[in-house]
Specification:
The protein is mainly α. It has one domain. 69% of the residues lie in helices and 0% in strands. Helix 2 packs across helix 3. The termini are far apart.
């Protein structure tokens, strides 16, 4: 692994106090940065993820086709 990341401790404390899910923010930011830095690699990782999760995605889509979405009854349009 590379060098230990340095995060401004005051900024981290403010985010945590505000209820920000710091780990999720970092994960999302890293994904975006990797996509920009290595677009081909990001596309390959996305394709691999889709392949690994194809069964779950199909199951989810089947359930939605059969039952609809939870919020359908709340729609006003």
């Amino acid at each position: 692994m590379g060098k230990e990341p340095k995060i401004d401790p005051d900024l981290l404390a403010q985010a945590e106090q505000a209820g920000v899910a710091v780990d999720q923010v970092i994960d999302e930011a890293l994904r975006r940065a990797l996509h920009r830095a290595d677009k081909a690699g990001a596309e390959a990782r996305a394709a691999q993820w889709a392949e690994e999760n194809a069964e779950a995605i199909e199951d989810y889509n089947r359930r939605i086709r059969e039952r609809g979405v939870f919020s359908a009854g709340f729609r006003t349009w």
